[in-house]
Design brief:
190 residues, mainly alpha, 79% helix, 0% strand
Length: 190
């Protein structure tokens, strides 16, 4: 008996607030493509230390991750392309910013751990796909992404406002993301 995709709490938010205002011709894969297009601009703005534009664009670009996944599940428009490229777009956004700012302002080891685990997830997902298996989104990966998003956001705000305390909160949040990423690796059997 087919149950459809698993619905997460953010999917209910999408169903109530965003689904009614997003035209039906816009597909989840369109939103994923927007993330691919915006990621280099976010990276460029952060490299240039233009935080007043970079931070809002980072927030919007990261928001598209929640948007495309929820849209796919709620509208039952999950595609094979989306299952592969949605997580890849997320990893490019997060991995690029980790490489640029976490490596520079927090810790080489923390940045290395995040990037190494993301690389393992990409390679493991690709190998599973080649064997005809699909890695479904699961709670540990969602918690990892949530912590990565906020960890980077705290660091960006710390840099913008020259607040060392936000950098410390960022580091703690990103270490928590590493723990969730390791649990995710084991739960997916990678």
């Amino acid at each position: 008996m087919w149950k459809g995709p698993q619905i997460y709490p953010q999917d209910l938010v999408f169903r109530w607030f965003f689904n009614p205002i997003i035209p039906k011709f816009i597909k989840p894969n369109h939103i994923t493509m927007v993330r691919f297009i915006l990621t280099p601009l976010v990276v460029w703005l952060i490299v240039k230390e233009n935080f007043s534009w970079g931070i809002p664009l980072y927030i919007f670009t990261a928001f598209t991750d929640m948007l495309d996944g929820s849209m796919a599940r709620v509208r039952e428009e999950v595609t094979e392309w989306g299952k592969i490229y949605d997580p890849l777009a997320d990893k490019l956004l997060i991995g690029s910013l980790v490489f640029i700012i976490v490596l520079r302002y927090l810790s080489f080891y923390l940045a290395f751990a995040i990037i190494a685990i993301e690389a393992v997830l990409i390679i493991g997902g690709w190998l599973k796909h080649k064997r005809g298996l699909v890695i479904q989104a699961e709670i540990w990966g969602k918690l990892k992404m949530f912590c990565q998003f906020f960890g980077i956001l705290f660091l960006l705000f710390g840099l913008l406002f020259q607040m060392q305390s936000l950098s410390s909160i960022s580091a703690g949040t990103l270490y928590l993301a590493v723990i969730f990423a390791i649990v995710s690796l084991f739960s997916q059997g990678i």
